[in-house]
Amino acid sequence: MPEATEGIRTRNLARVLGLVHGLGPLSRAELTRHTGLNRSTIADLVASLSEGGWLTERAPDPAGRAGRPSPVVAASPDVLCIAVNPEVDAVTIGAVRIDQSIAIRERIETEGLISPAETVDLITSTIDRWRENMPSTAWITSVGVAVPGLVRGEDGAVRTAPHLGWRDVPLGPLISARTGLPTAVDNDATLGAIAEHLYGAARGVDDVVYLNGGASGIGGGLIVHGMPVRGASGYAGEFGHNRPHVARSDEGGGTDAALEDEVSRARLLDAVGLHGADEATLAQALAGSTDPGVIAEMARQRRILATALSNAVNVLNPSRIVLGGFLATLADPDPADLVDLVRAQSMPGAAADVDIRTAALAEDRLLIGAAEAAFAPLLSDPLRDRAPGR
């Protein structure tokens, strides 16, 4: 019986922490309503999580109501993980708080492809450098990595990241061995889909197709009945390798071209004459261009993207499609036109209610998704780990 009681307590601790993590600051009274637990139990759970370093409490805002106001419970700003997104042209690293805010972010551009060993070195040195300037109360709990490639579900090994030239890399253990931190590794687009579903443009939507456009190509993630779909080996959602028919013979690539060969960040960079750029810089360059060649290239890519999206609509019948990265840049000039292009090539019933939106988390989506993976084991058993000195 003591083991059963302890199990119930662990689940209740996880419920309280999960609510504050997902919904933001809540009063004790709101936690009581959400969980159905009594006030004394909530007070005990909040006290334990505060002692463990996860939560803080503050006086309630004046509400002008009679009666004793309930203290507000919030995630501690000192609890962080390290989120990483290696790409072919840069590695983005962020320190993400448990409330999804990003305390520090760096985009470190690389010359040539970065190797797994160099990636581990870069992560380790960045953490060491950041720690020197963090307050003594800061607690880095774990590392999450969003990789543009196939990540094996059973152990998080990078099976292949073709654009990076990685194959069969036990990336998580390599990072853990160097940093001493538990590490979660997953596909970048899968993590982007989860982040947008929990906190962004697909929040509250049960059936979602997410496409991520990055330097390595196009990946995707699926939410079906409110749950991420990973496939038998964790490789579901590789939309970039689909081969949509190119409608016009003068558009190049032929019918055998993969989606990510034709709808391409590299082609957009070439069109505006940039060697490399972050998402915001590329979007600004495209939006500000009046060059007929740039306008034509964006229109060409939108047409091919619409064909690929119509195939997804016919197969999966989502209620929402979310586009991230450079795909959001393609959609932004005329979202309604893109919806029309998709509906014109879809079965009428499947496309009738589909909604296409750009990623609300913008350039933060992959870091927040990686952080969600990093925090997940700790959120399920909060008192397994405690802040240093607690």
Q: What is the topological layout?
A:
Elements: H1 2-23, E1 26-27, H2 28-35, H3 39-51, E2 55-58, E3 72-75, E4 79-86, E5 90-97, E6 102-109, H4 116-133, E7 139-147, E8 150-151, E9 158-161, E10 166-169, H5 171-179, E11 183-187, H6 188-199, E12 208-214, E13 217-224, E14 227-229, H7 259-262, H8 265-272, H9 279-287, H10 292-316, E15 320-325, H11 326-331, H12 335-344, H13 348-351, E16 355-358, H14 365-380
Parallel strand pairs: 4-7, 7-11, 12-15, 15-16
Antiparallel strand pairs: 1-3, 2-3, 4-5, 5-6, 8-9, 9-10, 12-13, 13-14
Characterization of the model:
The chain has 390 residues and is an alpha/beta fold. The two termini are 28 Å apart. Helix 1 (2-23) packs across helix 3 (39-51), helix 2 (28-35) packs across helix 3 and helix 10 packs across helix 12 (335-344). It folds into three domains: 2-75, Winged helix-like DNA-binding domain superfamily/Winged helix DNA-binding domain (Arc Repressor Mutant, subunit A, Orthogonal Bundle); 79-191 and 366-384, Nucleotidyltransferase, domain 5, CATH 3.30.420; 201-360, 2-Layer Sandwich (Nucleotidyltransferase, domain 5), CATH 3.30.420. Strand 9 (158-161) and strand 10 (166-169) form a beta hairpin. Strands 6-5-4-7-11 form a five-stranded mixed β-sheet, sandwiched between helices. It has 14 helices and 16 strands. Residues 14-65 form the HTH marR-type domain. It comes from Microbacterium sediminicola. This is ROK family transcriptional regulator.
